[in-house]
Each structure stands twice: as structure tokens, then as C-alpha cells.
Amino acid sequence: MRRRSTITRLALAGVFLVTVAASALWHQGALFASEDGYLFNDSHFHLTNYIQKGLTIRDYLAIMGNKVGRSALFGIPLQQTWAYENSGDYAPTYYLQSDAPLYYYSFTDAVIAEAYLSLAPKERQRFDPMITGFNPADMYAVDHIRRVMELFPGVFTGIGEFSIHKEFVSAKVAGNGASLSNPALDRIMDFAAETGLLVLVHCDIDTPFDNEEIEPIYLKQMKALLMRHPNTTIIWAHTGLGRVVRPTTAQATATPIRNKNHLELVEELLQDPALHNLYFDISWDEVAKYAVASPDVEKRTAALFNRYPDRFLFGTDVVAPRDQAADLRVFQMWKPVFDRLTPETSQAIRKKNYEHLFDAARVRVRAWEKANL
To answer: Which of 42, 217, 266, 313 is the 20 to 30 Å CA partner of 328?
Structure first.
């Protein structure tokens, strides 16, 4: 009996030590690493910034290391103007650092393609380059996308991230503003359906400092766009949220018009069988900040993910990170939510959904190129 009691105590001590070790290994990613050893695939990554500077692709490959398996790869389609009359000798690198306009920078696609092609074939398998250097308000945008595919066959998997309505950005873009109802956008979506290009679009669900008593301004238009293009696979970046385009909470007014919070609005879209082509990425630290705002929000967010495990993709939305710690920061922010997910849902959001969508796009785009270029 005494020996059996000793064995029992040792066994319990072992369980305790394993539990402590498992908790400590979160930061090394041991709990989330599956058979391939990676923490996640990144559906939303910018190699360059708003003045077209950033990392070399080999720098990024080193940062990915054994933590990030695969990554979408794109720059930023907008260039921040350095207007001396506005900021003098100060050279802005971000759109919030100047009142000067932004303009479309199409050369970004060539930069991304050349970076990708500089890699060995095995290294290329970890990346999915995206075309971004077009104006979605321009009826000629499709011509640019096709031209890029002709110049760089076998390179691109999708288009995006490009923006339609984006707080503090849309108003700064020179020329006519993009719109969800613009026929130019319909032409882009039709071409994506034809070619198999995956679409990653940023569109705020509402205007900044929105009125919580009315339906989000762009929700109805976004639904209409999705329904007009059922054969186009569309990832809605950041679930439609922004820095100040925030998720709504429960309303309590005398005559409420909007009676759903953001999670409920997202679920309503996912429940609609006509919107089977819609997916969401949960990239950006601003989105993570909302999701972990309280234990209740964490619980409700995780419950939504567990109900729809195949409709969300993890992404960082990091712009040219300085090191691996910076690249992993958004992932670490999601820990309280990820801890509440089933193992299957966690794997799907962090890796499998990326593989499903991007692999399918690769196959379709390569087939279209073979038949048409």
C-alpha cells in the first residue's frame, strides 16, 4: 500500500509538471504546432510599407523561420506623397503622418513578383503572391491585373489587399473614390471568378465614429456585391473593422434600428447560404484588441469561431516587421480566444483554411494561365 501511494503521488506530480511545462511552452508555440511544426499560415502580410520600403523576401523568410508555415505576399498599392509644403523636411512613411494625398503605385506588383522569383522553387512554395497595384475605381483595373499575369505567369494566387472604404485612407486617395457599387469593381470580381484569383478586400463595414442606432452604412452594399459574384471567393479583411470603425455593442435606445452587435452581424452573413463565397480574415492588432476586450467578448468570439470553423483565417496584417517577435505579436494577442477553441477549429483558423483557399486558387489560376496566356 505504501509503495502504491508513493507511485500515485509521483504520478500526480508528473501530471502537474507536464501541465506547468505545457503552459510555459505557449510562447514557443509547442501547443499549437501540428505535425508540420508551424504555428500558423499568414493570410495577410505586407512586405513593404506606404513609401514602398520594407524587407527583402529573404529577411522575411528568416523571420518566418519555423513559426510561420506559409504566407500571402503583397506590398501596399498606395504611395504616401511627401509634400514639402505640408510636412517640410519631415518625410512621412505612414498615411496618418501627413495630410498630403496617396496615389496608386502599380510597380508594387513587379517588386513582389521579382522578390518571389528570386527564391528557390522549394522556398516559393511557402508564399502566395497577390496583385494589388490597381485602382478599384478604374474600369481599366482588370487590364492591369491581366497584364501582370501575362508578365509573371506562374506567380500570383490572388488579388489584394485592396481597399474600397477605409477610414482615413479613402479620402486621401487622389482621383475618384472607390465604391462597392462601381462597375469597375464588378469587372474585377468577374475576372477573379474567371481566373480563379482569390480576392482579399478591405472595406470598413461602417463610417468612422458610426451611429450605433442605424445599420452599418456599407453592410447592405457589401452583401449585394457578394451576391452579384457568387463564383468569386472573397475574404473580407478584418471582418470589416478598423481603427475607429469599431464593433458595436448591445443597443438600448427607445427606438433602436440596429439591434445586433458585430458578432451577430457576422454570424448573420455566415448563416446566409447565398453568401457561401464569403470568408473573413481576423488580421490586424486592432481587431485582436476588440476580440480580447473582456472575458465575455473572448467567450462569444470563440463560440462564433467554433460554430463556423471553416470561414475564418488568421493573419497578422504586419507591415515589414523588424524581427520575429514583431511578426508574432498579433498571434500572441489572440491567445485568450484561441485557448477557448476546439483543437479542430484552432487548426482550421490558423492553418487549414488558408491551405484550402490558397491551394484551390493556385490550381485554378495555373489552369487559366495555361489555357489563356
So the answer is: 266
